[in-house]
Each structure stands twice: as C-alpha cells, then as structure tokens.
Automatic annotation (TrEMBL):
Residues 49-250 form the Metallo-beta-lactamase domain. GO terms for molecular function: hydrolase activity; metal ion binding. The keyword Transferase does not apply. This is MBL fold metallo-hydrolase. Keywords: Hydrolase, Metal-binding, Zinc. It comes from Rubrobacter radiotolerans. The keyword Coiled coil does not apply.
Length: 271
C-alpha cells in the first residue's frame, strides 16, 4: 500500500475491480483491565486504534465499523480517552469520497468504539446509509445492565429500525455485491466478521490487533472465551489458506496484514 502520495493513491486495488481504504478515527487510551481483564492490581494503560474499512464496489461504498463517534459516550467518560488528528468523516473525505456517499454501514457488533459515527450522528454524518448488524447482537445488548457500552446503543438502534435505516440480520449473508458477513461469536453474541470476496477479512474484535493473533490470549470482555478462541483459529486459518489480507481494527500501526501460522499462534506480515 502506497502511503506517500495522497489518499487517492492509498487505495488498495482489489482483484475484483473494487477499491479498499483503511481509515483512521484516532486512538483510545484505557486501563488494560477494561480489555484484558485482571492485571493483578497494576495500573497499566494501553492504547488501541480504530481503523474502519471503506470498500468501493458495484453497489457503491460500504463502511465496516464506525469508531467512537464525535465523543466518548458520557457513561464511559474517565474510562476511555480518545486522541485524534483525523476523525473518521475527515478520513473518508481524504479518499475523494464524502460520508454522504456511503450506502451501507456494516457493524460487527454494538460496542461503542465500533458504532459511534454510525448511530450517534447518523443523520448528520451518514444520512444516506443503511446500517446493519446481527439481531443477536441487539438482543444481547438489551440484556446488558444500564450504563454498559453495548446497552447504550439499544435506543438508537431501535429508533433506526423504526425509521427504516437500520436492518437486523439473522446469520451469514451477502450484504452487498462481493461483501459477506459471517457470524463468529465469542467476543459478543452476534459478532460478525466481514469478507470482501476472498481477498480481505475484516476480523473486528475477534482478532482486533496483532497480540490477539495468539489464539490463547483472551480478552477480558469476551463473553465466550472458548468460542472466541475456536473462531479466531478458524477464520485466521482460512485467511491464510486464501492468502487474504486481514484488517486488524485496533492495531495502531500496519493494520492490514497477511497472516501465517507461527511457532505460537499466527504471525503478521504488513501489506
């Protein structure tokens, strides 16, 4: 991927004839315990990026996940800090497109750092986009306690369903020409990864960064650790067999990689 000559040349040209951009929405900083679970009482801070994908195909522009949005939701203030030089809408503009051009937004699940721009400011930012997620993801969010990040999405998603711009999926499906979702739970119920043909895997929070290419490393917020481990191995193994690029949503640097089995887990080679 050329990063020297402007956003238009940052597009990855796919064999199918489409184009792909890896977009940024800044970094979040949080206590490691919010991601990895018990840190033994140590005060450890970690950071993660938010790298959405923008795909241009026969059906127009499809966006995969949507960052934190304009600001961290009030119930999460103090737990997460977001630092940005460039917001997701600004990153889209740098590709030569406009957020208004986005026809479809696919949400892997309903965590706030994946849905923000899509549902908290949809009318202002993506007024023409249809948004989809799995029905099981919404049902899980409804069961969460008040103040939980996923629960925060529920009233906005329900309003979108009533207004007709939010759709619920029930399992694997081709959502746009060449773009397919595949339910891979573990991090959450109804968590879906996205395949662009057989060329690109968007693994979302199933394998969000390079450290999670080690299948035995389980996030402290995974709802079903064994399912997360099993599904991570299966999808990364398939990506390796296909030679597909894997987009690591939370990886700060070089988020687009090829993977190969190593001595322990999978190893990443930047695209």
């Amino acid at each position: 991927m050329n990063t020297d000559g402007g956003a238009e040349r940052d597009a990855v040209k796919l064999g199918s004839g489409g184009r792909l951009w890896v977009l940024e929405d800044g970094l979040f900083i949080t206590d490691a315990g919010n991601i990895l679970g018990d840190t033994g009482g140590r005060n450890v801070r970690i950071r993660g990026a938010m790298h959405a994908l923008l795909h241009e195909g026969p059906d127009g522009l499809t966006l995969l996940d949507a960052g934190f949005g304009p600001e961290v939701p009030v119930p999460l203030e103090g737990r997460y800090e977001v630092r940005r030089e460039l917001s997701l809408p600004e990153a889209i503009e740098q590709t030569g497109n406009s957020p208004e051009d986005v026809a479809l937004i696919v949400l892997s699940h309903l965590d706030p750092d994946h849905v923000g721009w899509a549902i908290h400011s949809r009318d202002e930012t993506f007024p023409n986009a249809r948004i989809v997620a799995q029905r099981d993801a919404l049902e899980e969010a409804r069961r969460m306690k008040e103040g939980d990040g996923r629960r925060l999405a529920v009233p906005l998603v329900e309003a979108g369903i009533e207004a007709g711009w939010f759709g619920l999926l029930d399992g694997d499906e081709e959502v746009a020409s060449g773009v397919s979702v595949e339910v891979r739970s573990g991090h959450s119920e109804g968590h879906q990864v996205v395949w662009i043909g057989e060329e690109v895997l968007f693994s979302a929070d199933l394998a969000p960064s390079k450290i999670f290419l080690e299948p035995d490393l389980i996030s402290g917020v995974d709802t079903d650790p064994e399912a997360a481990r099993r599904n991570r191995i299966e999808v990364l193994s398939l990506a390796e067999r296909l030679g597909a690029m894997v987009a690591l949503y939370h990886e700060p640097k070089n988020p687009l990689v090829h993977v190969a089995k190593g001595r322990k887990g999978f190893e990443a080679t930047p695209v």
